[in-house]
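in:
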């Protein structure tokens, strides 16, 4: 699967794409990721990407020309072009799974007051928000989306982590986890986890997941 990110701040993604599971999946060739500076598609001496809004008002708006040029160069019939936007549809587990089945995502990060509406109307296939709050630009939202999607691809997590009991994977939240030592500062782990009885442990885990979901996210049940 391939990701192309269009941003004014490519350096923000350097560490993210080199580290952890996403970094490993790129090294293994499961994921391809390229980060592009939108200024590379400007044609003026000062590489200007923003201008004042028509009609007045505070702030600046990202100009359409470099964005059109960049997307027209990068996209193919296989591509889904996504604008990260606070007023887009909210990223969720089901949307992540849908995106993980796509071969190529182009992720456009906005800045300032956002982008010229003609880009949204004519070039964008999906608009996605990572939550009901506003960030200064869409580069971190692009990273969030890549991370969430990449970890669903076969071979990315390896055996060290499983997707099955992740929160939201089957509509429930995740389970309480414990590791060694079995007793720490007088705090003991639940007896059942030391029982060696796999059926009992599994039943306990499912019960814990249901109870946690009922308490914290009853809307999921
Ligand atoms: C300061 S925001 C613009 C906010 C815009 N004026 C509004 O009120 O919707 C600048 C850019 O950050 C990104 N952004 C900010 N918050 C976001 C969120 N919650 N989800 C996705 N992208 C976000 C978008 O790409 C946006 O164009």
């Amino acid at each position: 699967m391939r990701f192309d990110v269009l941003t004014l701040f490519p350096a923000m993604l350097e560490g993210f794409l080199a580290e952890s599971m996403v970094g490993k999946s790129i090294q293994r060739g499961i994921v391809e990721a390229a980060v592009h500076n939108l200024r590379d598609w400007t044609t003026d001496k000062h590489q200007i990407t923003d201008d004042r809004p028509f009609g007045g008002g505070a702030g600046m708006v990202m100009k359409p020309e470099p964005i059109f040029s960049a997307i027209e160069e990068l996209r193919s019939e296989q591509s889904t072009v996504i604008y990260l936007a606070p007023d887009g549809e909210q990223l969720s587990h089901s949307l992540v799974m849908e995106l993980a089945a796509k071969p190529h995502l182009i992720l456009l990060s906005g800045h300032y007051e956002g982008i010229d509406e003609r880009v949204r109307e004519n070039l964008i296939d999906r608009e996605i928000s990572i939550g009901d709050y506003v960030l200064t630009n869409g580069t971190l939202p692009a990273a969030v989306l890549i991370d969430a999607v990449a970890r669903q691809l076969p071979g990315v997590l390896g055996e060290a982590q499983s997707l099955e009991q992740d929160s939201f994977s089957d509509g429930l939240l995740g389970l309480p986890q414990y590791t060694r030592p079995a007793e720490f500062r007088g705090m003991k782990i639940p007896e059942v986890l030391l029982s060696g009885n796999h059926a009992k442990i599994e039943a306990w885990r499912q019960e814990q997941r249901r109870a946690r979901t009922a308490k914290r996210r009853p809307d999921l049940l």
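note: Helices lie at 14-18, 20-27, 64-74, 93-100, 117-122, 139-150, 198-216.
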